[in-house]
Amino acid sequence: MPTQNTEHRTYAEPDEVRQFPHGRAEILKLAGAEIGRLVLEPGWRWSTDVKPIAGTELCEAPHMQYHVSGRVHVVMADGTEFEAGPGDLTSLPQGHDAWVVGDEPAVVVDWYGASNYAR
Which of 33, 43, 57, 73 is spaced 20 to 30 Å from 50 by Cα? Predict the structure, then answer.
C-alpha cells in the first residue's frame, strides 16, 4: 500500500489558474493528483468558450465531478442529456458539450479530468 502524507490545501491558493471566456479552472495538486475547481459564469458553454482552446469538436476530457452550486446542462455525443445541480455527482466519458443554465455561476469540483482541462 502506498504511503500517504497528511496534506491541507485551499482553493484560495491554487497551483494554477486557467482562464477562459466566462470562467476559469483552478487547479490544486494534492496527494499526487490534480483536482480542479471549475467556476463557470452564466453564458459559459464548452463549445463556445473552451472548444477553441481544446481544438476538438466535443470535450474529450473524461470527468468525475461534484456540483457545488449553479446548474449545468450536459449533452453527450450519443444524445444522452441531463442537467446537474448542487449536490449532484457526475461521471462524464469523453465526447460531450455542456453549458451553464440560469443566472447563477456553476461551481464544480473535478477530481478526474482537470489535469488537461482548458489546455
Answer: 33
What pTM, to 2 d.p., does this model score? 0.91
* Cα 89 from chain centre: 12
CA distances from 65 to 3, 5, 90 (A): 25, 24, 5
Q: What are phi and psi of 46, to 5 degrees?
A: -55, -50
Per residue in 47-65, pLDDT tens? Answer: 999 999 999 999 999 999 9
Residue 52 grid cell: 477553441
Measured CA to CA, the distance from residue 11 to residue 7 in angstroms comes to: 13
